[in-house]
Sequence to fold (354 residues):
Amino acid sequence: MKWEDNVRRVVPYVAGEQPNKPDMIKLNTNECPYPPAPGVAELAGRMDTKALRLYPDPNTTPLVDALAGYYGVKPNQVFVGVGSDDVLSMAFLTFFNSGKPILFPDVTYSFYDVWADLYRIPYKTCALDQDWHIRPEDYRQPNGGVIFPNPNAPTGVFESLAVVEEILEANRDVVVIVDEAYVDFGGESALPLLKKYDNLLVVQTFSKSRAMAGLRIGFCIGNEKLIGYLNDVKFSVNSYTMNLPAQRLGVEAVRDDTYFKVTTAKIVGTRERVKEELKKLGFSFPDSKANFIFAAHDTIPAEQIFHALREAGIYVRYWNKPRISNSLRITIGTDEQMDRLISFLTGYVGKYGT
Fold:
């Protein structure tokens, strides 16, 4: 068909499976196993729905102000989007326009190459080393921008701020994006480096540590000019990107810092316990600082375990891709959920392991 000659074609991002079965254990999309802060539920219960007839604040002012106060920056250093995917997509569209290839790791968040293809941005991947770490020297080549998650996905590996700064120092003439979707589970944010590097953009999300994946709230913090340019692009696409409930409930999530820290600490505690249990069963994995573990068994193929778990109603993430086809990404759930996972794996490894 002639009209198809003008279609923008891309291979889309494939999200984790979203099953809805009774008694299932869903450990495949890195969602928080606990509810949002109590203030979120309280406000949601008394929200005035009459206000929904009006457009929301296009500047998301209350949420921007809450985030600026929490992180100790100016409001004009904060940009809010509909999940960190929206923020990252806007950042690709805004900052990666030089015609030179952007750089990101070969094993990383699989949306990066999708956005690059969608926006016709050339890119080059840099291979992680055998321990799944970034090699900073790979990012000293000419490029049109740099992006990487820290901790990385799907490996969970955290790079020190010294490594982050080494990459920033070598790339002062392009925008460097540090995607910190999982930083609250044991990493250290690059936000302090903003004082030194005006080309740094730090992206975070409410979907993981703040238990609000269903509301889609993401944000980034950077130099005032960077944020200004992002807003210019946002207002050229859609002025009203974030709905009113998300704006108001997001503020409540930021306010309850105690709940936030207790919840993340609980997940970290469960993660560390599960690491030890998996080791006993013959699994190996990099030291995760995220809310998941990227595990491979010594003798049983990952795909085999994946299908066995799925049949048992336990969902984890598996990719049939180079370098990672023998690993499973296992989200950290509640202690009860992880106990059921370990119980199943104990029996399965006992039967099929060698």
